[in-house]
Amino acid sequence: MPVLSRAELSRTGVIFVALLLVAWATDAVAREFRAADTQAEDYPTVQALRYMGALIAERTKGRHEIKVFHSRQLGEEKETIEQTRAGAIDLNRTNVALIGNFVPAMNVLAMPFLFRSIEHMREVLDGPIGNEILGSFEPYGFVGLAFYDSGARSIYNGVRPVRSITDLRGLRIRVQQSELMSQMIRSLGAEPVEMPYGQVLTGLANHLIDGAENNWPSFVTTDHYRHAGYYTLTEHTMSPEVLVISLKAWKSLSTEEQTVFKEAAQRSSRFMREKWRDLEEQSQRKAQDAGVTIIRDIDRKPFEEAMAPIYAKAARDPAAAALIERIRKVE
Fold first, then answer.
1. Residue 325 neighbours by CB distance under 10 Å
2. Predicted pLDDT at 12
3. CA-CA distances (angstroms) from residue 317 to 11, 102, 307, 311?
4. CA-wise closest residue to 310 among 173, 169, 184, 155
């Protein structure tokens, strides 16, 4: 056995400790990020999250990965938003109406009859206004990464066709757990019932509620169309989905890694839109083939006029009023 001098032993010890530190540091930054989504495994938002995960794994050479928990495995949206804020969940895809309970600007995007069309909504979200809104999350424990499409939400029920605002009177309509959505349904003369998304099918089947409001894919993929045979194209909201990362998870990333996550999220948004368009068309065809009565010829003006108290209340907040005005001016 060779005899090492004190200097050689010292150098060997330093090298060994350095190697241990490198190994520890490498292990510390390698991470599997948990992402929550309440939708089913084959839903466009879930596919988009997986696509984003693949991009991140590729860019970081496998150091970072995303594990997607779909189908409410981590809880309903209201619960997962709170967990994301606390840092227990890393990424979350949620509707803006629910996260609006924490981030005020989101309530503006959920305002009924705000967007003139899907094209108008995308012009807003893909431009400076959208970037500003995503940048407003941090004080509330989140970082906004990207917007996903959610189509137009319309009202459906199993009692009668809704052709005018008077046809809604007395109907018990499920809404998201959001005060804004409850105000909207109440303003239309129906009775809002705040209920988690996962309980709506049971509520319809057992007549605990008469109907709900959602987009075509959600109406069909959840089997709501089997118990609610009247779908009225009110298209009252076109509020998007938003992808956020917890501030805790965000701060664990280097500046370079944050750029990777943001770019991957933006690319996943474009990927999601393509998937969404196809699913919307398929869902509408499936509902028609199943005998769902689709009411298209409605006078939207009384529905829009009924929202006056909601907009009057929003106008009392100067920031919200200014944002609404800016959105309406976008061509």
1. 10
2. 44
3. 66, 16, 17, 10
4. 184
